[in-house]
Amino acid sequence: QSNQESFMNGICGIMALASAQMYSAFDFNCPCLPHYNLAYGLGILLVPPFILFLLGFVLNNNISMLAEEWRRPQGQRGKDPAVLRYMFCSMAQRAMIAPAVWVSVTLLDGKCITCAFCTSVPVDTLGNASHPRLSQGEMKRVLARIPCKEIYDGEEFIANEVAIRYLRCISQALGWCFVLLMTTLAFLVRSLRPCFTQAAFLKSRYWSHYIDIERKLFDEMCAEHARSFAKVCIQQFFEGMSTDLATARCHPPRKAPADAGEAAEKLLGITDQGTMNAALKSWHRCKPPLHLHPLVLPSSNGWAGEKQPPTHPPAPRRETAAYYSRV
Amino acid sequence: MDHFRMIFQYFQSNSESVMNGICGLLALASVKMYTCFDFSCPCLPQYNMAYGLGIMFVPPVALFLCGLILNRQSLVMLEEWRRPRGRRKKDLAVIRYMCSSIMQRAMVAPVVWIIVTLLDGKCLICAFSSSVDPEKFVGFANTSPMQVQQLLAKVPCKDDELMRNNTSRKAVSRYLRCWSQALGWSILLILIIAAFLARWLRPCFNQATLLQARHWSNYIDIEQKIFEETCCEHSRLFAHKCILHFFESMRQEIKLHSFGLPREGEGAEGEEDLLRGITDQDQVNKLLKMWYYEKPPLDVNQV
Questions:
Q1: How distant is the Cα of A195 from the closest Cα of chain B, in angstroms?
Q2: What is the pLDDT of residue B55?
């Protein structure tokens, strides 16, 4: 449990750092046009957090576990909605951290809000009192250029630095308020839980951890089973091949001397180039069915690898082979 | 036994070291945040004070709350405080001890922020430049009251066109910075003396109660950790048994449904054991389908 939680916390921390790094690497370019500013500024403020939130869910391994537990038919095991809620809440809490970091860093930096709201600066209070009146549209066009210092041409209405300082002050105030709000919420969520729902929480935590472990153990056991299945299947394939070929070429499978030991076993009855090539070709052209013959004890003649193939009636073949002349 | 002892020692030393580590990291993070933060005073009469004092006091509150959230012991303390009495008495001294140790650790990062802010001086210059007495400074003594407020408000902004080469601006700035740094160093000195006295004089008062409180607060922490570890182990064993049961019941069902199956060898080889009677593609598919559609009940008593 501690391992799983530390791992998830680690991913959460890495995503938060990645989001701060992404912001500093991002080349912010305010369009400095009246209607585009607001769209661009608010877009940069709100769209990446949404993407980061979804990414937080995607990178969380437990999302598939939650979906599986939610959608499975009831069967013999009841479903507990409290467990599902617990899993969803803990995933959502972790996924919220990176977007919150992006929004805080954006607001504290100030460029987005400056870009988005520069047309709403109160020129009357901040600007020079004596300036020629301009039409609304013209004023907006002039104010929209505030973030782009090189092309700003409204010094007589309002100084560029004054406007930028004003907007940045508001942005940073919003940023710090947002940070305070998020920390207060996190604190309340964490501290109210032991006061009200501790017993239910312990139950949900245990069963959500149980579901996770059960799924992992089941996957492990299935992998083990698949391994054994594959081993026996291939073993039976080789035996089948060697017996088939021996019958087709009308000579008995060569008996290894009784003291050949392990090496002979591993050869599985295939001891010459032609047989091996035929085996490889058959493996490609005609894979064996996924059906294992029942396993029997090894027979006493030392052929641990050769079993009686149950699909062929053994007695007649043996009799046929017995009459073959080696001349 | 050795195993348990090692675990105990690890948990005990680990808990306090981890908390001290987090406390230190948070303090470093607060300094780093301050240096990364781009302080820009608005230089407007009504906004300066709000901005300056806001930057000085709002982040510390957020850092304090962060310090409480990141500290695992605060959850343990809350649980101990709110739990029903049951068969174990509640000792308020232990809860008080835990609370005070949590608060002390959580206060480090906010205090570091405030001191760094004061020693740097920008916040106080921004907040109080309009409150300076203009008579003391040559450049501002002869201006009208309306204008003097505007001018004083612009003192923190060095690059403003009005303030660019104004020597009185530098005078005001230096004056406020001097006050700010004096305040910062005084607060630092007072805090260090208080911490020193608290640590030195503590053994003179209630040492026995303190030892008891510390022991039992450690105990509660370790007990909770071990409970969680035991629950983990239990759920692992439970899951293992549950899945083995499931495979077994599948094997029984297959035996019941298929009549023509040849006798399996006695003395099973290792492979057969692992195959658990599932030897066919259809059987495997059926097992996987059953696992999804009908998970086995959470009951391993049916041996």
A1: 6
A2: 94
Domain count of the fold of chain B: 2
A183 vs B42, B62, B280: nearest CB? B62
For residue A159, the chain B residues in CB contact (below 8 A) are 161
Query: Which among B51, B161, B276 has CB closest to A169?
Result: B51
Same domain, B57 and B149: yes
The contacts of residue A239 (CB under 8 Å, 6+ apart) are A268, A269, A305, A306, A307, A309
**B76 occurs within a structural domain:** yes
Residue whose pair of structure tokens reads 């009831």 in the numeric block: A74
For B256-272, how does the pLDDT look when each residue is reduced to its tens digit (9 = 90+)?
876 545 444 443 456 66
Residues B185 and B224 placed together within one structural domain of the fold: no
Domain of residue B126, residue span: 26-204
Q: Tell me, yes or no, whether B70 and B167 share the same domain.
A: yes
Q: Is residue B9 part of a domain?
A: no
**Domain identity same for B150 and B195:** yes
Chain A residues close to B37, C-beta within 8 Å: 108
Is pLDDT larger for residue B278 or for residue B36? B36
Residues of B in contact with A83 (CB under 8 A): none
Least CB-CB distance to A213: which of B75, B235, B263? B235
E strands, chain A, in order: none
Residues of B in contact with A210 (CB under 8 A): 235, 238-239
Q: How many CA atoms does the CB half-sphere of A4 hold within 13 Å?
A: 15
DSSP B18-30: HHHHHHHHHHHHH
